[in-house]
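Job type: complex structure
Entries:
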Amino acid sequence: MGALIDRLLVNYESTASVILFCIGFSTLLMNNNLIKKIIGMDIMDASVYLFLACQGYIKGRTAPIIVDGIQSVEKYINPIPAGLVLTGIVVSVSVTALMLALSIRLYYRYHTLNLDEIIALAGKEEV
Amino acid sequence: MHMHFVQNFPFMGILLTLICAVLSSVLRPRAARVVTLFVIAAVTCLTAGTLAYTVSTGESYVYMMGHFPAPWGNEIRAGSLEAVSLLFFMGVIFCAFVGGKERSFQDIEETKYNIFCILVDLVILSLQALVYTNDIFTAFVFIEINTLAAAGLVCMRQTGRSLVASVRYMIMNLLGSSLFLIGIVILYTITGHLLMEPLYDSVQLLVASGEYRVPLLMVVALITVGLSLKSALFPFDKWLPGAYSNSTPTGSAILSSIVSKGYIFLLIKIFYRVIGIENIFALGICDVLFVFGVIGMIMGSVSAVRATTTRMMIAYSSVAQIGYVYVALGMRSEAGIICALWHIVAHALTKSMLFVSASALDAASGGTHKRRDLRGVFYRNPLAALAFTLGGVNLVGVPLLNVFITKVMLMEAAFDAGGLHMAITLTAMVISTLLNAKYFLGTIQTFFTPKRDEQAVRVKNSFSLTVGLVGFIVLNFLMGIFGSQVLDIMVSGLACFV
């Protein structure tokens, strides 16, 4: 048990991202409010990016931008995860934008953001 | 190494589609449609070239994107399996786009028609990228592009139901993408690679040394669950019927036959080229897929029997057919995988034909959606009724057609697997086929029963609808008749995967 807690504390970024993922995941699935769902989705995405970003970080090293002519690999962190996170952020921004646009459409039509109510109202419409 | 000009084709197809998608945004609706048709034609020709080249050389090749060699740069990889699948998919997109042209014009606001064309372009783009990519993170990016484009196609009609369907589609699919991404991240942290060949080598080393067993298991589980969620394996199928039945006919056809199939293709590719198929067979993940596939086969058919609208029935039948694919994957044998690959394409051809013809039948019956209103529709629109009949009997399983070959192959694979696998598969196939026969043949029977005291009025099909439907019929027959040749190409392409 003690060893487990130690491991969780040493890899505290990963622990935090797992907790955040659970929060985001449950918000996305359990909340009925569309805006809260979108917030949950963003938290979930952010937790994955945190997990990814912290994998490339090595304590005591800097970003791989050559300063003072130091070219040793030992000096720098791995930049690839950061690059991947940037790509991922672009993807999740577009996803959020689309979800918000759909929410606005649904709100104009049904005057509510509760997905259950919206589904019930839409079910009564003609196919 | 000297590079043959044809080797550029997959990359050119991707680039061309991307350029045309951007171009479509500033064009007039009709011009955008012409551009999309051009994209479809061009990509089809390029794919045919790639197919001819890869079949003649008998091996696959890797194409370096940019100037960074492996293991740093990005790569695409083309072989005969990729090319032949993509060629059939492009045929489906062409027929669906042309066949649903008129309905799309009716269903979509004129100012939004460009967006529709862009979305079709983006689906083609991400399909090519998913089929050809050799880099697992690129696969993730294009999965997301595919999801966004598909969500757009779902809500294109802008009715309340289609907007709701789109939101539900997005929520489930984003969950799938997130799981997939976590899988990739863990894989990256234990191997340090993103390209498939170095990944494969590293994973084999890890398996041999027994290191990181649990993370590796998690990777396989996350990637499999993520992709099966996105391809609507039971019990993740709740978003599917709404999404497929509320889109435009073209949209439904593309969603059911292209979007969900690309993910399964990618899953098989990852099984072979990243994890190693022997390791997958050893892990027992196949059994999980098998069980859910069997349940999906039966539950999908049961829901289809209960469905009141034609399109809902076809949508639920997709759940059952996806079940077939996963049952084949769960056989733990090469024969099963080939059966799955075959059925991906066979089902794509059939299901898209059903969606396009069903909307024509609905239109010929006074814009109805109910199954029971289609009585005597054969006398009003014979071509669409024939296309629907062909699709229906195909899914039930009639010789000469492509789904029959799936069923034969699945049975052979089940006999090879033996024991419990065989018993369960055969039982499920019998039940599913009977249910299939019940709802498809039951519906088709009403087509040929004329309404009493009513003179049937022939509906004149537009040229584009005729082209689309005839194209679908020809494609289905071609795949069934040249089954053994297509299968040979698939088998040799799969052999290049390793």
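Summary: Chain A touches chain B at residues 21, 25, 28-29, 34, 37, 41, 44-45, 48, 51-52, 55, 80-81, 84, 87-88, 91, 94-95, 98-99, 102-103, 105-106, 109-110, 115, 118-119, 121-123, 125, 127 (CB under 8 Å). Residues 25 and 44 of chain A are 6 Å apart (CA to CA).
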